[in-house]
Amino acid sequence: MSNYFDWKDNTDLLKRPIPFLVVIALMALIGFVLIKQGIAFGVGVLMLPFVVTYIFLVLKEPRIGLMGLFIINYFILGVSRYIDGIPYGLAIDFHLVLILLSLFFRSFFNKVPWKRAWNDLFILALIWFIWILFQLLNPMATTRSTWFSSMRGIGLYMFLTIPIIFITFNKKEDLKTFFIIWGVMSILASLKGIIQQHIGVDPWEQAWLDGGGALTHIVRGKLRVFSFMTDAGQYGASQGHSGIVFMLLAANQKKSSRLRVFYAITGLLALYGMMISGTRGAIAVPIMGLALYTLLQGNIKAIIIGGLVGLAVIGFFTLTTIGNSNYTINRMRTAFNPNDASFQVRLNNQRILRSYMASRPIGTGLGSTSAEAKRIAPNSLAAQVPTDSWYVMIWVEQGIIGLTLHLFILLYILIKSSLIIFFKLKDPWIKAQMSALAAGLFGIMVASYGNGVLGQMPTGIIIYSSMAFLFLAQEYEVDINENSKIIEKALPN
């Protein structure tokens, strides 16, 4: 007996129409759902089978969830320009919680190395998160309804990402995977930015610009490229971060020509993306990153070459007018001008806030400087005066106590990582990778004075992961030494 669903040609559909009618009915149902519930609901229904399958895979293997996190971290917020009404940021929270659930269930059948997560880096993240929780009780808070949306990038993601890296993604091969995923996503971000620059924005991006985005992203008739990220400031800093890290990786990759080419292409495209973003403060990322990298090499020749390169870049922007006719170069040049009008406005805002914060040592509460706070507490000075800086935002929302604690944690991580690289690491490739990560971290720390980028997506997850990898560096060398001993024993005498 022939199968009812088999047919030799299209005319058989008329004789056996049920499969065809089922497809038509499903299409009609999907169309009805889209009309009645909106495109967001319809897309959710269509994606449900894929989401369920993905959840199953992550529960089976938590590493898949971490790799998925690195991917969606890059473009999840930009999706809101195309489909509105969905809290996309919660996808990051969902991934982190799902990975932890996977580890919890796995512990019933296999040994999960929870103790690996207990180290000084996690303790610092824990202390910081406890301080974030305390902000719920801040009696000086102008609003508490913004606490949840603000605390995630500032404290929660750091608190959860670091131990997950130590437990599930702690091998040298995992570091390589991390760089490859990061590189691919950075290339995609660069290509999207190049399309915006040379071809133009799509209809949804144009609608976003028309709805208010143009106020900050069209300067003198020129587009500040933002790719598929939230804004040009984040795009520029993120690409500057990728640029310095991958250029340093390319310079030090000796064994694999394919990886060297991949890293070089990623770095060059990322630096170009940084330039076309029009984010002036982003140039601090590669410059300051290169400065730290040269110091970490402990090599006079490297320090001299790095210093000359850095001075040449600074000299080009400060001592010459070459390229002033080019909008991108001209805008970047203003970053080195202390009399720039935008810079003076920022200094004036900080002077206003300084007197306001004198009587608020624990700040005005998380989220009190956000766009949402302007609507909820329009009479609050914290909501009305732009902070324009990650550190100024921390200072206003958490006071001088919170800012001091935050800076201590960041400097502890940077200094300890630098000491490990300088004094402990012997393997040239591991040292080069860790130096690149430390350079990127330092560059973002410096650039965060001009823009609020450190805890924002995609930079935040990349930075928190980098911190964990830096503290795992010595373990990578132990693995190399152990593998070498195993090989030596296996070789005939």
Describe the structure.
- This protein is an all-alpha fold and about 500 residues long.
- It is built from 21 helices and two strands.
- It has helices at about 10-15, 20-35, 40-60, 60-75, 90-105, 120-135, 145-170, 170-200, 205-215, 230-250, 255-275, 285-295, 300-320, 325-335, 340-355, 370-375, 380-385, 390-425, 430-445, 460-470, 475-490; strands spanning about 220, 220-225.
- A two-stranded antiparallel sheet has the order 1-2.
- A hairpin with a 2-residue loop joins strand 1 (about 220) and strand 2.
- Helix 8 packs across helix 10 (about 230-250) and helix 12 packs antiparallel against helix 13 (about 300-320).
- The chain is globular and about 70 Å long.
- Residues about 485-493 have low confidence and may be disordered.
Characteristic terms for this protein:
two-stranded antiparallel sheet, disordered C terminus, mainly alpha, 71% helix
How do the strands of the widest beta sheet line up side by side? Answer: 1-2
Distance between the termini: 70 Å
Helix content: over 70%
The share of residues in extended strands comes to under 5%
**Low-pLDDT residue spans:** 484-493
Order of helices and strands: HHHHHHHHHEEHHHHHHHHHHHH
Shape type: globular
For the secondary structure, the number of strands is 2
Radius of gyration: 25 Å
- Please give the count of helices: 21
Please describe the biggest sheet, giving its number of strands, its sense, and whether it closes into a barrel: 2 strands, antiparallel
Derived structural class: mainly alpha
Mean pLDDT, to the nearest integer, reads 85
